């Protein structure tokens, strides 16, 4: 197997790793996010602006992280298929 073939196989394996890692971390990240939001009392309407911003940041972090993982996996797998 030449070096190009080895590189394509490595990229395919890494892409698969990131894809599986994204699915494996989806549920724990969601549970941690829900726990953090309930601990910070984000549903209270009389909280400060700083706490509201922290709540929004906590809520956005999990989908962004998973999106980056799935995007990276898609790029690695898709680049080697063509």
Please describe what this structure looks like.
This protein has 82 residues and is mainly alpha-helical. The chain has one domain (24-81). The protein is built from two helices and no strands. Helix 1 (3-39) packs antiparallel against helix 2. The model has no long low-confidence stretch (mean pLDDT 87).
Keywords, separated by commas or semicolons:
mainly alpha; 82 residues; 2 helices
List the helices and strands and how they pair.
Elements: H1 3-39, H2 49-81
Helix pairs in contact: 1-2
Distance between the termini: 19 Å
- Count of helix runs: 2
Helix proportion of residues, in percent? over 70%
Please, what is the average pLDDT?
A: 87
**Percent of residues in β-strands:** under 5%
Structural class: mainly alpha
Any idea what the shape is? Answer: rod-shaped
Q: How many strand segments?
A: 0
Specify Rg, calculated over alpha carbons: 18 Å
Elements, N to C (H/E): HH
Short description:
This protein is mainly alpha-helical and 82 residues long. Helix content is 85%, strand content 0%. α1 (3-39) runs antiparallel to α2 (49-81).
């Amino acid at each position: 197997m030449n070096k190009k073939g080895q590189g394509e196989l490595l990229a395919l394996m890494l892409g698969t790793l990131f894809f599986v890692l994204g699915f494996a971390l989806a549920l724990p990240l969601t549970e941690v996010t829900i726990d953090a939001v309930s601990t910070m009392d984000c549903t209270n309407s009389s909280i400060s602006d700083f706490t509201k911003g922290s709540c929004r940041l906590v809520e956005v972090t999990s989908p962004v992280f998973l999106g980056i993982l799935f995007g990276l996996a898609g790029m690695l797998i898709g680049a080697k298929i063509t």
